[in-house]
Amino acid sequence: MVAASFLFFLLAFTVIGIASVKGKEADTPEDYLVANRNVKPGLAALSAVATNNSGFMFVGLIGFAYGYGVQAVWLHAGWVAGDILVWIRAHRVVRERSGDLEVSSVPALLATDDQGRLDRVLATVAGLLTFFFLAGYAAAQLNAGSTALHTLFDWDLRVGAILGAIIVVLYSFSGGIRASIWTDVAQAIVMLIAMVVLLGSAMAKIPLTEIGQALRAEDPMLVQWVPDDLTFGLSLYVLGFVFGGLGILGQPHILVRSMSVNDPKNMGRARNAYFLWYIPFSVAAVLVGLYARLLVPDLESMAAVELVEPAELALPELASRLLPDVLVGLSLAGLFSATMSTADSQILSCSAAVTQDIAPRWKNSYLASKIATVTVTGLALTVALTANEGVFSLVLIAWSALGATLGPLMILRLAGRPIRTGVAILMMGSGLATVIIWDALGHSGAMFKLLPGMAVPFLIYGLSPLITRDRGHPKKKHPDAAEAAKGEPDAEAAAAE
Q1: 58, 315 Cβ separation under 8 angstroms
Q2: Residue 261: beta bridge partners?
């Protein structure tokens, strides 16, 4: 019965995605990648929130709450706060700017100035970063789905990843981002229902008013609000998670949802729909993680497979112990939905990066976009089958890398600030290096890596006038530096006189 229920929902999502072809307006890259910018705000919002709250929320955040108890509240609150700031300040500008400039990918949006001039070098570098990290991010989603199937059905971990990849290709290949959005909406509904059902069943076992006492009895650390050994203090610990939420500005698979909305004026409605779903779901995810620690305390002994982090088994194992078979299938479908709703979006964003930014000669080829989708899916599946990191770790690596490399530049671009190619590349390189070094130094537990990862690129940008200020002013020892004088109307006017 569990398998039948699960497969029913899986088939329904696939059919919905394929049926989206009926809404297709034309066989063009713009329709395939941004749905001709005519998606209703509510649909775009539910798609964005389902894409954002992926295996990270359904598996990773629950696992974090399972392992660290009430400290998960800091991660949740900070992340939501950062997300709110982005919705208030940025998403409408993303829609307006992308529509005015007629760009269909986030790297192209990043590399195009206010006059519509595309910086090809910057677009290519941003496209390569998008391709590399989103492919790894998508692999983490396929991993999350395979973890659930392994737990409940004892299937080989490879089966879930392969099944997810096949389904994503079927509907993404058919309808592009429109298929992704349609299935995301259906998946968002199933995800929320599954989480509410699971939380309600857990609360029937242990009333919410007694959970604090029960956690203390299990392990006093689980009700310790402030982590030990916070090197930089509680404020920077929480602020680090706020920057985690701000990192959405570097996530092409989420920003492209805003680019597809039918009218910039509707972004307020999209924001309301987004948080109406997001806040209850994320609160429920933290609570489910806490309940899982009480009701399934023996996960360490279950993680016999090297690719599985013990805490990532919390949700599927809790569902199998608390729910009847039909609802276990629903919960599993919800978890699998979470992974697919993100994986398909990331794969399509990778496809856009390939055809629009890395190899722009295929920019106007509808077929090339589809071929890129299949190719990227194959790459993500390969990574999923060979990676040795847990889902939460893989997601945080990719999220932080994209947030630190693309996020600061996106903020500057949306603010209308000038960006030199060399400075932009230096910013991206320094952001990525900072994230890697911060993680290697072991400081991520005291302050989330995206705070320094975004701060350093902004510091580079702030210092860039000191680095480049002499380039536009020829000196006596360079009398023939004609290139340096280009673009300086005052100097040219003086020479003319």
Answers
A1: yes
A2: 39
